[in-house]
Design goal:
Shape: elongated
Largest sheet: 10 strands, antiparallel
Number of strands: 10
Amino acid sequence: LPYYADAGHVTTLAASVQADIYNVDRTSGAFGDSVTGRFFPQGKIDWRYPFYRQTGSVLQLVEPVVGLIVSPNGSNSSDIPNEESNLVNIDDTNLVSIDRIPGLDRVESGQRAFFGLGGEVHGVGGGHTSLFIGQSYRFHTDDELSDTFGIERHLSDYVGRLDVVPNDNLNIRFRFRADNTNFAALRN
């Protein structure tokens, strides 16, 4: 549910519930025969405040975004095998998503905040350039998630995107992920 304030603030509320039942039968390893399930509610609120300015024929936009996502801690049962949620890639497209893990076998449980800053410049000829950089903060670390995801620690890695579109025939996009401690490039 988006809410648009007269001053230009945009507040969005979202909620979801995921209910899963697993019948685990004749699997190898640590999983035996069992029936298990999970009930996983989530809530999200985010706030954006776009600032626009036009100087001559150039339109400029700066937009901070902050938000909070809440869900129960520890919602990944060891009785549920992980067959489809092995590859998690945190980037600018899912930083503000309610669940950043693909598939249904694993969920991103716990509470986290996200924050970022976006900016755009639009020219009179139709070209534009945009930039976004952001990060998330988990209130509790999640040891149930793999160390390689970049979302299991308190502070996530930095993620961002730069788009340069000088005309209709050329679009250059650069996405990146940088380590939250030393800014080392993890994805380009």
